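Example protein
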Amino acid sequence: MIPTGSQIRSGRELLGMSQDDLAIAANVGLALVIRAEMAAHLPQITRKDSTAIQGVLEAGGVEFVQRDGGVGVQMRKADQP
């Protein structure tokens, strides 16, 4: 699942990261993170950049969810790997 702009922003905020923190951790440019978060739906970024951002957020415990026709984020439960 490719995260939406709002999922990227929400996931980053759950982890208490700044946009700059996320850009550095994902090895992408700050402008790319800003552009991705501003996207109303799927950001217009490469699959590689999307995967890098998603990987950083998931490594921090963020789960990307899709249910009841909507999308969101939540923190992984402590007993899950």
